[in-house]
Specification:
Blueprint: H1 2-25, H2 34-43, E1 49-50, E2 53-54, H3 67-70, E3 72-73, E4 81-84, H4 103-115, E5 119-120, H5 123-130, E6 136-137, E7 140-147, H6 150-163, E8 168-171, H7 184-192, E9 196-199, H8 212-230, E10 236-238, H9 246-254, E11 259-265, E12 277-281, H10 288-299
Parallel strand pairs: 4-7, 4-12, 5-7, 7-8, 8-9, 10-11, 11-12
Antiparallel strand pairs: 1-2, 3-6
Helix pairs in contact: 4-6, 4-10, 6-7, 8-9
């Protein structure tokens, strides 16, 4: 009996040691580092910071890897940048009907890209990754919207929010607060949804026709307006109507922008001129399959 009682006490002591060891490995202090690592993860912010908003973290559990975190592309990624304008059906007799893309069409295009493995990112994220200061998902794509139409904040904003993607707004300053244009409040909502806000000049002129003072005012002035009003970096410039020349590009560089986008067809490449980044135009009537085909063709057969 004494021997049996002794054995029971020894087993109880061993069980207590095992329980303490498991507790230390699951979050308590431990010399192995397991507990301190878990505490660090719990205290860490759920992502880094991009110029115009926080990086989105998918899922509620910080310890659960997401597709974006688990499958990264090298920083020399070739990135398609899509170009949109009005996100609404074109009214009868519209002068530039091709610029109107119906919300249903945009929804189908985003869904097709997502199904094919693409993930929406901002241009700032692309530039950071190219510079070695960040990473990208395996198949990144940028959706950019020119001018600043209200439909971009409402229809496109809802579609991208549901997809968990950011957009890039190239804001022509004179459209802010006008009938059919974005309001300041709506732009702030877009920023809260992780949209990047970039400059598209003050009044959308042909920049190649301006004198030096007017050119500086349009290029540098539009960035200053966005930064002062919305408190964002406005690190990229979009040439109005895609028109630029060496003098215009020099003005963009002098204003401190990191990059500029054009209407030249193609995908953006890290080794190219960052102040003449190509884009893929999406017009009315273009199917989701055609958009996906254009993206793959621009990036290359490996996309």
């Amino acid at each position: 009996m004494l021997l049996l009682a002794f054995r029971r006490r020894v087993l109880a002591l061993l069980g207590a040691v095992v329980v303490l060891g498991v507790a230390a490995g699951c979050g308590g202090s431990s010399s192995s580092g397991s507990g301190s690592d878990a505490a660090t993860v719990a205290a860490a912010p759920p992502g880094g910071q991009v110029a115009n908003g926080p990086v989105q973290t998918k899922g509620d559990d910080l310890g659960t890897s997401t597709p974006e975190m688990a499958n990264r592309h090298p920083t020399h990624a070739i990135v398609p940048v899509l170009m949109y304008h009005v996100i609404a059906p074109a009214p009868a007799g519209a002068k530039y009907a091709g610029l109107w893309v119906a919300p249903d069409a945009l929804q189908e295009q985003v869904a097709a890209l997502g199904t094919a493995g693409y993930t929406g990112v901002t241009l700032d994220q692309v530039l950071d990754a190219w510079a070695g200061h960040g990473t990208l998902p395996e198949h990144p794509v940028v959706l950019s919207f020119d001018d600043g139409y209200l439909s971009q904040g409402v229809a496109a904003g809802d579609i991208l929010r549901r997809a968990g993607w950011p957009g890039v707004l190239n804001l022509a300053w004179h459209n802010l607060g006008t009938p059919g244009g974005l309001t300041a409040g709506r732009v702030k909502t877009m920023i809260g949804d992780r949209w990047e806000i970039d400059a598209h000049s003050l009044t959308h002129p042909d920049l190649t026709t301006l004198d030096a003072a007017s050119l500086k005012r349009e290029v540098a002035g539009s960035r200053a307006k966005i930064r002062d009003t919305f408190g964002v970096a406005a690190d990229a410039f979009c040439y109005p109507a895609g028109k630029y020349d060496p003098a215009v590009e020099a003005a963009v560089r002098a204003a401190g922008y990191r990059a500029a986008t054009t209407e030249v067809p193609g995908a953006a490449r890290p080794g190219g001129d960052h102040y003449a980044l190509p884009r893929i135009r999406v017009d009315a009537g273009v199917s989701a399959a055609s958009v996906l085909s254009s993206v793959r063709a621009a990036v290359g057969s490996g996309a």
